[in-house]
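#data-curation
PF: Archiving a pair of folding outputs for the training set. Convention for this channel: one message per protein, sequence first, structure tokens after, nothing in between. First:
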Amino acid sequence: MKKLLYVLCLSASMMGLNACTKKNDPAPAPAVVGRWELNRGKLSGFIAPYTALNSYGIDLYNYDFGSYTSRIDIRVDKSFNNNLRSDGLVSDAVGTWDYTSPTLTLKYNDGDSETYTYTSVDGIEELAAPVQTINFPVSSTATAPGQLQIIYRK
């Protein structure tokens, strides 16, 4: 009878431990979820005599484009808020997002959309916007055509 009691207790213990196994864990949040701060603008596409500007990282807040900064909060519920600060004005742009590695697409409630490419190298996570053509100020009276890519970091 004691053996039967031990077997029943052991069986009940095993069933109890098995019941604690998590079989329906929620999927982990995509890597893009979190707070992204504008980190820099990356220059490229300059021709002589301005080729030295290629691959420079510039602070967009303190440069001749006017003061500009941005913070994007990407939430697990597929919503986001982009807090924009430019030339003394502050605004929020909200919407929803989709992520198919490595492309993040932000769909704003006003109908606009933006795409970013996600990378993670040596623990540094970045979102890179598509390259845009600019006229970069090289002196107080001259500009040079080139390209600018906006980079965010988590």
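PF: Second:
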Amino acid sequence: MSDPMNPERPAPRDPALRPETRPEDEPPRRGAGASMVLWILLLLAIIATAWYFLGRDDAEEMPEPTPIGETTPEPSESPVSAAPAPRETMPERATPPAVTRDARPLTRTPPEYPAAALRSGIEGTVLVLVEVGADGVPTDVSIARRSSSRDLDRAALQAVRGWTFQPAMRDGEAVASSVQVPVDFRVDNQ
């Protein structure tokens, strides 16, 4: 830093303000940071070793020691302490295997072929997703995969709404489920 009054002359250095306060004949210390790193690494190695040995689960289960002076009680000869005679057990009834199956159509009313699609010769298959109640009646009907014609899709939905289904069975009980049914429209079938 220079003297503000005289820009050519440098300011005198105060030895108390000098950043280096060690004597000139002492060599600079090196490796102080390296020794700190070595101490940290040593500490980490000790912690990891302790964690490894304390966390091992290879200690064999030792049997419970028998205290000195205790003996195993001897069986009594009295009729009261005898084990009761085994009862005759009823043979277990064979349970029928639990029935598990998906819902399937019982009555399939054929869909009406839309007149415009029939005149145009449009054919296709509509995949209908049906939510079937436990009573076998469709509760919701939607299209899982469309055909090439909106008219065929509508006719398929209308037809499937009137179908009845055999409900799905889980563990022998009728349950609500969903099933996909294909509805085909072919000109040669009309």
